[in-house]
Amino acid sequence: MKMERILPFAKSLLKKAVKSGDMVVDATLGNGHDTVFLAELVGEDGQVFGFDVQQEAIDATKERLIGHNLIDRVTFFHEGHEQISAKIPKDVQGKITGAIFNLGYLPGGDKNIVTRAETTISAIEQLLAIMASEGTIVLVIYHGHEQGAVERDQLMKYCQGLDQKTAHVLQYQFINQQNNPPFIIAIEKK
Ligand code: SAM
After folding, report:
1. Is the distance from the beta carbon of residue 51 to the nearest atom of ligand 1 less than 6 Å?
2. Can you give the CATH number for the domain in which 169 is found?
3. Is position 1 within any domain?
4. Whose CA is nearest to atom 7 of ligand 1?
5. pLDDT digits (tens, 9 = 90+) for 112-162
């Protein structure tokens, strides 16, 4: 058996939660790799709502989607994901089945612009309020940089405190690797 690595496992979790025609959220567009994956997953009748605070990330994601002929499946918000409930249309709320947060900084971009626990947690809370039952949020936590370790600690505390009556929370991590490789926290709304 080959144990699934971190990024493939993140995708497997989303594949289980999301089907063709669904509405999903890419909370950190970055260079658009996850956006392409989600856009393929939801098919031509679904929609991805994508957030990023950097125009550079929006542009890179648009370019990647155009290259895959998937641009029509994505709605872009040049906003922090803490604006999720304000920005996602009301008629979609309650129907979101999947979301991914690939945390940290934009690869190849400004390493000082990073995700932060306070806004990440606010976005998770908002998502939990507007997701469908059994909707799944996948967090890929990069904790090798200074702010990443701070974000990890606060996120772990928050996630461990989530009421088991409202969500299942999973951690998936290789525990013998050096240099703080990323790990996954997944939250399935009950
Ligand atoms: N998912 C991306 C991919 O597949 O290429 C990688 C994402 S990258 C690790 C993290 C991104 O989060 C950066 O582009 C950064 O600008 C963005 N970011 C930072 N704070 C944010 C916030 N509050 N809301 C949304 N995006 C944010």
Report:
1. yes
2. 3.40.50.150
3. no
4. 30
5. 999 999 999 999 999 999 999 999 999 999 999 999 999 999 999 999 999
Residue with tokens 């509405």: 23
43 part of a folded domain: yes
pLDDT at position 1, please?
73
CA atoms of 74 and 57, how far apart (whole Å): 14
Which token pair is 32?
């658009």
CA of 145 to the centre of ligand 1 (A): 15
CB 71 within 8 A of CB 63: no
Query: Is the separation of the CB atoms in 32 and 64 below 8 Å?
Result: yes
Q: What DSSP character marks residue 2? A: P
Q: Which of 53, 100, 150 to mutate to test ligand 1, by most ligand atoms within 8 A of the CB atom?
A: 53
Overall number of domains in the chain: 1
- Domain coverage including residue 50: 6-189
Does the pTM surpass 0.90? The reply is yes
pLDDT by residue (tens digit) across 73-90? 999 999 999 999 999 999
The answer to whether 36 and 169 are in contact (CB under 8 A) is no
Confirm or reject: Cβ of 182 under 6 Å from ligand 1.
no
Whether 131 is in a domain gets the answer: yes
Distance 165 CA to ligand 1 centre (A): 30
